[in-house]
Structure formats: C-alpha cells, structure tokens
Amino acid sequence: MDVYWFFDWLDTSLLADMSKAYGGVFAVVQMFHLLGLALMGGSVILCDLRFLGVIMTNVPSRVVFDNTQRLFTLALVVLLLSGTFMASAVALKLYFNEAFWAKMAGLALGIVFVYLIRKPLFTRFEHDTISPAAVKVAALCSLTIWFTVAASGRWIGFSSGEAPPLSKQTLERITYAFATAVFLLAAWYWVRQWNSMLELLEAAYG
C-alpha cells in the first residue's frame, strides 16, 4: 500500500509549518527525542543484560523488568510524538529514504515483540519458572531488534549526505556479522532447550 499521500499531507501540515519556521521549537522537541532515545536504550540494555546474567545479578529480574518496562513505554510515547514532529520537517525526503523504512520496519517489529511476546511472557509467569534458555533468547532477540532500529536511525543521517566514519560496506559487514553471531547463539540455546521451550509455549498459549 502506497502511503505517499500521508507524507505529502504531513509535509504541508501545521506540524511541518511549525517545525520549519520555528527553529527553537524544533530544537526543544529534538532534545526530548534524544532524551527518549537515551531512556529507551538504557531500559532495553539494563533489562536484557540482567536477563543474560551480566549485571545486577543480586537484584530480582522481576524488579528490573517491571521498572524498565514502565520506562520503555514512557520513552516510546515520547519518541513517537517527537519523531512525528521532527519528521514533518523533511517528510517527503524521508519517504524516499531506504534507511528510514528500515528503521520503521524494525520499530514495528520491536513493538510487536515487546508487547505481544516479551511482556506477556515476563508478566504472566514467575521468572524462576521460565526456562533460562527462553530468558536468554528473549534478551538476545530484544538487543538485536533495538540495535537494528538504532543503527538504521543513525544511517538516515548518513544517507542524507553526512559522511560516515566507516565505509558503507564495512558497516554492513559488521551489522551482518553481529546479527549472525546473535542468531547462532540463540539457535544454540533453542536446540539445547527445545523440549522445555515447547512446554513453555504450551503453558503460555495452550
């Protein structure tokens, strides 16, 4: 479905007029956008590293998850609102930017993963009853998804004329290598804990 009409409308909307005419307003909104990014990134990294047993092992994972989940939701709302305002200033430019669509696809996947899979799993069940492999796989998937979103968002600036410190081919190879390593590790956990994972899924959705 072609959504060019939406970007065309956004480019001529009141939001676009404000973002283009009032640099001070745009700067303030951008500040909140950056704060939202920091809040979301911090909540994701903190919770997922706790699930992986890297940090805060003396704090119950339930406590870490509940608190970071609230911060994540707050950050997501801030990012969606501020991001829409900022996008209105260059709406048509973004429509033709492949990195922007990669970021939007990753963001949509991340939202589905967090609210339809990750949150129900770690909210409905006691964490010590969930397979350790499932916990680690969820954390690795989360880190991979949000790393992809962040990398795609940063690439929007590069693809708009800002020269990256590394070549495009080098950055692509690093991204592919990172994703491959993460998914191989995840697959290893799935294979080792396949039976327990099946029991978990039956308990969650059966």
Task: Summarize this entry quickly.
This protein is an all-alpha fold. The chain is 82% helix and 0% strand. Helix 3 packs antiparallel against helix 4 and helix 3 packs antiparallel against helix 7.
Structural class: mainly alpha
Determine the N-to-C terminus distance. Answer: 35 Å
Q: Tell me, what's the shape? A: elongated
Provide the residue-averaged pLDDT.
81
Please provide the ordered H/E string of secondary-structure elements: HHHHHHHHH
> What share of residues is helical?
over 70%
Q: Please give the count of helices.
A: 9
Tell me how many strands there are: 0
- Low confidence ranges: 161-166
Oligomeric assembly: single chain
Structurally, how many domains make up the residues?
A: 2
The major pleated sheet works out as: none
Query: Radius of gyration from the CA trace?
Result: 19 Å
Proportion of strand residues:
under 5%
